[in-house]
Amino acid sequence: MKKNIKGLFLIITLAMLLSACDPFDIEKIEDPNNPSVSSVTNNATKQQIQYLVTGLESKHRDYVSNVTNGWGSLGREIWLLNSSDTRNMTEWLGLGNFQLNSNVFGFGATGGGSYASPYSAVKQANIILDACVNTANLTDLEKKSVTGFSKTIIGYQLMIPANWLYGNGIRIDVKDETNPGPFVSYEVALDHIKTQLDEGYADLNAAGSTMPFKLSAGFAGYDTPQGLAKVNRAIAARLAVYRKDWQGALEAVNQSFMNLTGNLNEGPKHTYSAGADAVNPLFAPLNVPNPGNLRVVSPSTLRDTTAGDQRVKDKFSRLTTPFIVTTSSVALTGEYQDKRYTSNTLPVTFIKNEELILIKAEAEAQLDQPLNAVASINIIRNAAKIGDYSGPTDKVSLLKEILYQRRYSLWAEPGGHRWVDVRRYTGPGLLFNNMSEEIDTSFDKGVVYTQFPLPQAEVNWELYKNK
């Protein structure tokens, strides 16, 4: 009986294989538990728009763990020590004889949170844009607020893969995932992102005073078209320094929520909660014996602190017992851990007032406005309780001071700032001649990568497409 059943199974399987014209031509299966894309892009109701926007805000936070831990390691802000699997040390820190490839652990075949997650958010936003075009259930003003928010998130999310792949370029035409556009250069990608943000800003400014959707508490204070327009300009200011558009950076911060006398930590946030929702992926209890997996402060970050810096006191917690993990080539010792998140439901700010003031300072230094730059720098220094800046005021000295302050003000935030900042200023005629030396490898003897190769899935797609 078993032999007959087995034989019948083989016959059915062969018949299915022989009758299939294309192994990639998969029969469409309707999901009874989720709406189809067509059902929400054809005369969507306000409730459906709300669901889509809520989904976009959720996807907007999916990069946080990968970028914070991965890029933080690349820039030697942190080490992610793991006693059971050392790949996020040996590979991210370039230890031993590791050769960078498309399958680096934690970034993997699809690029993980540095690639796949941002594009998932972009896809969600594109669905919303289509839904707005094809619905009669929203007024023109209401549509503007929806499209303005969606384009703002597209701009933010595309900066992530752009900065990760850098010189390898990214795709910007991804509306049809079965026929994506070509890879474009970093510069072209940033220009496209600027267009998205500028269009989003224009939409928000034309959206009136109310919105047909609600956002989470993470956008409290920014949950109007005017508030979102300020968030849009904050993101545009970050983009402007990547594009070396210093005047544009100044204009953007002045149109943002920057407040020179306000709370430096103010800004829109990714929210988390217990239960069915996601929890904060950066939370780690303090001083757990034998933690197994722990984000620790890199020794070079500790070595270069300024005495009495309040940021160090607020962000770093000394371990009762140092956490030591030995890889195949080196032993790594963590003496301090991250203490910013005291529970797994605390939000994560994704752009804040402190960064905007530092962007202002950098733009002022680049535009040969040293007095203004020093005034902006001193806001940050005095908040950190380290006193006014008293060094030279030539452009090079001011920029080095600003990057130093960014190092501690933006430490281990979900932007990979240290890694990106040093790369921005490494090269002929710039501040640094060697990225590895400036980021510092004296403690781990590894390699600092400038950029990452295309994810393996993209390599495979290009091979399949060209067959």
Q: Could you describe the 3D structure shown?
A:
By secondary structure, the protein is mainly α. 47% of the residues lie in helices and 8% in strands. Helix 7 (140-165) runs antiparallel to helix 8, helix 7 packs parallel to helix 9 and helix 9 (225-242) packs antiparallel against helix 10. The strands form four sheets. It has a two-stranded antiparallel ribbon with strand order 1-5. The protein has a two-stranded antiparallel sheet with strand order 2-3. The chain has a two-stranded antiparallel sheet with strand order 4-8.
Supply the key terms.
mainly alpha; 467 residues; two-stranded antiparallel ribbon; globular
Topology, please?
Blueprint: H1 2-19, H2 37-40, H3 46-59, H4 64-74, E1 78-82, H5 87-90, H6 116-133, H7 140-165, E2 170-171, E3 183-184, H8 186-205, H9 225-242, H10 246-255, E4 269-270, E5 293-297, H11 299-303, H12 310-315, E6 316-326, E7 331-338, E8 348-349, H13 353-366, H14 370-383, H15 395-409, H16 417-424, H17 435-439, H18 456-465
Antiparallel strand pairs: 1-5, 2-3, 4-8, 6-7
